Each structure stands twice: as C-alpha cells, then as structure tokens.
Amino acid sequence: MDIMVDSSVWIDFFNYYKSEEADELQNLVEHNNVNNISILNNDIMEITNNAINVYRMLRKKGITIRKQNDCLIASYAIRNNIQVFHKDQDFELIAKETKLKIHKL
Description:
The chain is mostly helical and about 100 residues long.
C-alpha cells in the first residue's frame, strides 16, 4: 500500500531529530518504499467537501481537529486508499471515525 508522509515526520527526518518516526522514514527511504512519487489527480472540490464533512462530523462528536489541513490530507488519503505516516495526534482522531488508514511503526 502507498504511504503519504506528513510534514510532521519529514521535519524530524530533515532536522536529524532522533525519533521513531524519523528512523522509520529512514528505513522506508533506504528500502525505496517512499521513493516513488505519485501525483494525486483528484477533483479538488470533492476532496475539499469531504474534508469539510470530516471536520464537521468530528466537531458534532465533540472532537476538535487543531489543524484543518489535516482533514484535507486525510481526505486525499481516504479517496486514494493511501496510508498516512504521521507524528500528529489529529490523524489518530480522524482515523478512529473514518476510513483513514495509518502507517504503523
């Protein structure tokens, strides 16, 4: 399955910050698991509407996503059946209530 790496992991990786996520990303890079770059060619309005719906659905359940962009990233991942590799609690909250798949360490 394809993996979308969130900036929260890339930041650790490029800043040589020691974390489990940075180590896993190093492993994925060394084994060519994230070297293939795909361009997601989706209808931006569909993705945006899905992101808005995810955010609203979570708010109705009392869950606040701190960064609404995470809903947008999650919507792309769900639409394209891609795992998100992150270091951001918002994605865990989204995954509990949607079909978002998380790349596990």
